[in-house]
Structure formats: structure tokens, C-alpha cells
Write a structure and sequence with these properties.
Length: 330
């Protein structure tokens, strides 16, 4: 079977990483790249550097990686769908819910494979956590807490921290628990002089009763990417910077010191840091999308799921603006 012909549009900070992976992906030929600003990072590797998505389509690509700024996702996505080209679109799917709905509907109407690049799903620590939750190792899940903070990335100009970084946590929380957000209450702050928010704190409720907390900002010199999943048997701590998953078990040691026992809830038990394989998440993401295009079994973030994430992100912004809890329709 001939290799799939892939194209890439958007050669910025993320685009250069997509070019590296696509250029070495088994069963795929990266035939051309496109960016109206040219190949500023020198990632084309001798391939044609085109100006727009229309020129990419003319090369006869089977699918396209879309890594342009969020504001252009709708335009580029609809053009690819109309041309019958499968697409993997960087997160978020589009700049707002109506645009995301249009893109998702366009790919569905054409029977095309459309996916969203929520890369955290492919992090080994979260993959392990999801598998262990499915196996019942934690029992009932009570709470998911995420912390995602660090310095402002100069690459972002068209959305705030909720849609850029917060969508990671919205998607991974729904995916790892297999529950949907039913309500959110959020507060935001504007501290860097930009028109978009650069800090958000969110409290959410999931369909299975799990409570969530998400702290996200672009204001900290400390870079942190942590997910804590607490359940009836203990807690998983996933550090997605190092791809480590640690299990903190509830203790079963009886406290004979009665004064201490009455002030303690769950006691501390064994701590286990799992030894897990750590493939590159971006490569795993591309491998799954390639397999989906080929009609094989694959784990992709569908555009419908990407649409839901955008809806939840906008509910967070609405809550912060109104000062009220926003209930999400099922």
C-alpha cells in the first residue's frame, strides 16, 4: 500500500514539532508545508513551502495537520472538509462554539476523519491513570485537581489562558474519568496588560458526581503540569512534564493513639511510582490519527469531543464574567 500523503499548514512553535514527527512517521509522506510567513524555523527539509491551504490541497494530500493560530481554524478546516481532506486540528478546535460546530459538522457531513490535537491524552502518565481507573484500582473517583502554570508563551495572541491551556485540563479530566462536565464556576484575572485573561480558577462538577478544580495561569515562573485524581482507595498524581504516575494508597494501619486517630481521616499508606514506558505523546497522537485515516482501530480526540471542550471553556469565561455558576446542557 502506498504511503498516505500528508500536508502541514502553520510553521510556528507547534508546527515545527509536527513537521519533525510527520517527516519520520511510518506509512506517511509529508509532501508539502504551508505558511504565509514562510518557513521561519527551517523545518521544511527540502519540501515545497506553500502559502495557503488551497495550494496544499492542490498537491493531492490525503490529510492535513492544521497548526495555524486558533482564529484561522474555522476557515482552514472548512476548506479542507470541502476538498475531502481528513484533518487533525491543533486545540482548541475553533475560536468559539459556533465555529467549532461548523467545522465538526462539515467533516461529519463529508464522512471525513477529523480530530483535535489535545495532546495531553497521549501523555504516558495520563494513559496509565486512565487504564488503572478503568480497572477499578482507585474505586469511586471523588475529585480531579489540575495545576497548569508557567510563564506567558509569546506564541499566543488570539485567545486567553482558558482556551489555550485550560482546554487541556477540560479535555483530559473528561477523558480520564469518562464523565462530562455538568457545571462550572470560574474566576479570571487580567494581570499582563493583554485583552485576554491570563489566570483562571475553576470549580467543576462532572456527570458521575466527581468534583474538579483547575488552576491555570501564564503568570508564574514555576512551570507545573500536575493532575491529582482522588478516589476511595487513594490518589493518583500524574506529572505530565516528566510523564510520571505515582499512587498514594490509603493506609490500613490501625491508630492506637486515640487522640491522634480522632483528628485523622484517611491515613497514609504505601507510595508507588510506576515504571512505565514513555513514548513521545506527539508521535503517539500522530500514529493514532494515521491509523484512523487508514480505517484501523485508533484513539483520537473526535471533533465532537473538541466541540464539547470549547463549550465548557466558554462556560468558564461566562461564569467568570457573570459571577455565577454555569450549568451545561447535556
Amino acid at each position: 500500500m502506498a504511503n498516505l500523503r500528508a500536508g502541514l499548514i502553520g510553521l510556528g512553535m507547534m508546527g515545527r514539532h509536527h513537521a519533525r514527527v510527520l517527516g519520520s512517521l511510518d506509512g506517511v509522506d509529508l509532501v508539502a508545508v504551508a505558511d504565509p510567513g514562510g518557513d521561519v524555523h527551517g523545518v521544511a527539509g527540502g519540501r515545497p513551502v506553500l502559502e495557503n491551504v488551497e495550494q496544499l490541497i492542490e498537491t493531492g494530500i490525503d490529510y492535513c495537520m492544521v497548526a495555524v493560530p486558533t482564529i484561522y481554524h474555522e476557515q482552514v478546516g472548512l476548506t479542507l472538509a470541502e476538498a475531502g481532506v481528513h484533518a487533525l486540528v491543533e486545540k482548541p478546535l475553533a475560536q468559539d462554539t459556533p465555529a467549532a460546530r461548523k467545522v465538526a459538522d462539515a467533516f461529519a457531513a463529508k464522512g471525513l476523519v477529523g480530530a483535535v490535537g489535545h495532546i495531553e491524552r497521549y501523555n504516558p502518565a495520563l494513559q496509565q491513570a486512565r487504564s488503572r481507573l478503568e480497572a477499578g484500582e482507585l474505586g469511586d473517583v471523588y475529585q480531579v485537581t489540575t495545576r497548569r502554570q508557567g510563564p506567558f508563551p509569546a506564541r499566543i495572541a488570539d485567545v486567553g489562558v482558558v482556551k489555550d491551556l485550560g482546554t487541556h485540563d477540560i479535555d483530559l479530566t473528561a477523558w480520564v474519568t469518562q464523565q462530562e462536565f455538568t457545571s462550572v464556576a470560574a474566576r479570571t484575572a487580567y494581570k499582563s496588560g493583554r485583552e485576554h485573561e491570563d489566570l483562571v480558577a475553576v470549580v467543576g462538577q462532572l456527570s458521575g458526581g466527581t468534583v474538579t478544580n483547575h488552576l491555570v495561569n501564564w503568570l508564574s515562573p514555576l512551570k507545573e503540569r500536575v493532575t491529582i485524581i482522588t478516589g476511595e482507595r487513594g490518589a493518583f498524581v500524574a506529572d505530565t512534564l516528566t510523564a510520571d504516575l505515582t499512587f498514594y494508597a490509603n493506609g490500613e494501619v490501625e491508630h492506637t493513639w486515640s487522640d491522634l486517630a480522632q483528628f485523622r481521616g484517611v491515613s497514609e499508606g504505601d507510595v508507588v511510582r510506576y515504571a512505565i514506558a514513555k513514548p513521545e505523546p506527539l508521535r503517539v497522537e500522530h500514529e493514532n490519527f494515521r491509523d484512523a485515516v487508514l480505517g484501523k482501530e485508533a484513539d483520537i480526540v473526535t471533533m465532537e469531543q473538541g466541540l464539547t471542550t470549547v463549550r465548557v471553556a466558554e462556560a468558564c469565561i461566562e461564569s467568570a464574567t457573570s459571577g455565577r455558576t454555569v450549568v451545561l446542557d447535556g
